Amino acid sequence: MQNPPHDPGSALAIRTQYRQSESRAARLRLLVDTGQELTRLAPDAMRERVLARACAFLAMDHGLLLEWDADGRVSTTARHGSRDRLNSLEVVADRTMRTPYWQDRPGESLPNVLRVPLRGGDGNAFGALVLANSVSLRVPDNEDSESLQLLATLLAAHLENDRLLMALKARDRTLSDLVNRLFRAQEDERKRVAYDLHDGLAQTLAGLHQRLQGFAGRCPILPETLGADLQTILALAQHCVVEGRQLIGGLRPTVLDDFGLLKAVDKEADRLREAGISVHWIARCEARFPSQVEIGLFRIAQEAINNILKHSQANQVQLALQLHEGQALLGVDDNGKGFAATEQQLDTDNARQLGLATMQERASLLGGRLTCVSAINCGTRLHIGVPANLDGTPQ
Question: Name one GO cellular component term (predicted).
Fold first, then answer.
């Protein structure tokens, strides 16, 4: 069988197509492999890896990764090659750069320089890949330039995401610090008001009640109507004294400072008992905790009891306070009407949901976690766990 005649043109075309296919495959591998790696790397490692891959892709032996802030201050965040030669590169912040820019510098130690912009979501450049070589090279073709621009875009997206995440974390820390200061200021103010009421109005009311009792004891027998009025006045005075003491106890319960969290929560639970709700302790821990832990958990328990009285229509409540593996665990469960899971979304117009948000924030500031499980006609279970030994404070 006769072989077909050899066609040098066809062979050259096949070799050209093969080389083009290899180039496209190399570009695709560059983008795919780098994209997969960036998801697993820290920001500094991302910068180093992208710069090294970009230099290797164009066979260039020097490179810089530049980034600049809103004021145009430029910093070098990664470098590749001789530091002395890299120092000869012009370092500028050019926010208007949109596409790769090739520069020939005859006679320089790095005669060819390629600048590839790192653009943010607003389209403006916040950095640049600067690639250079110690011997002259030809200008890369459009496909190579586009591949490098895609590589730079991958890095820019990851860096911008990291910047946004860091900004959100900083804002969250600032907000948490402000809330923590607010809670502390609130506690200090409650303590001040409680002491002022105790030393002022409460003493005056107690003195008034005693004087009225003394007057009633020395008073001659009065007509029935006047006698009934005097007894009503005595009852009102006694009620004022009791309410004053309850108000002071709610602002800053002395039992919390004197006897600890367990006694303070049990004293607060008297409000449930007075409302006809059965209270049962399933776990009791009389250990003392750091002051901020006791105050935080007491306020959470106080808010939980408020919610039960206002919303739950429960007739039974189970309380628990435990110390387990360095965690102070508080539980408040009721058999009330509960609420749907969708209602757990924060609604600032709903007092119960705002109370839950406040409890969650208090638990978070203590480094702990609050979980609330509820369903219609199935009651509500509230469990809180926080570190019991904050900042190394002895228990």
Answer: membrane
The CATH fold assigned to 259-395 is Heat Shock Protein 90 (3.30.565)
Give the long-range contacts of residues 193-198, CB within 8 A, separation 24 or more.
193/251, 194/248, 194/251, 194/252, 195/252, 197/244, 197/247, 197/248, 197/251, 198/248
Residue-averaged pLDDT of the chain: 82
Contact between residue 104 and residue 112 where contact means Cβ atoms under 8 Å apart: yes
Instruction: Lay out the sheet containing 125-133: strands in order across.
Output: 74-80, 62-68, 125-133, 112-119, 101-104
CA-based nearest residue to 295, from 264, 327, 332: 264
Bridge partner residues of 283 (DSSP): 320
The Cα 295–Cα 98 span in angstroms is 57
Query: In the chain, which residues fall in CATH 3.30.450.40?
Result: 8-168
Q: Report the phi/psi class of residue 7: left, alpha or beta, with left for phi > 0 and alpha for psi in -120 to 50.
A: beta
Contact 264, 298 (CB under 8 A): yes
pLDDT at site 280: 96
- Judged by DSSP in three states, 116 sits in strand
Under 8 Å between Cβ of 55 and 62:
yes
Phi, psi of 134 (to 5 degrees): -80, -15
SS3 at position 280: strand
What CATH architecture does domain 8-168 belong to? 2-Layer Sandwich (3.30)
pTM of the full predicted structure? Answer: 0.54
Cα–Cα distance list, 70 to 46, 152, 317 (Å): 22, 20, 57
Number of Cβ atoms within 10 Å of the Cβ of 108: 15
Q: Please give the C-alpha separations between residue 298 and each of 51, 65, 121, 199, 260, in angstroms, as whole numbers.
A: 55, 53, 46, 24, 10
The amino acid occupying position 189 is E
Contact 366, 386 (CB under 8 A): yes
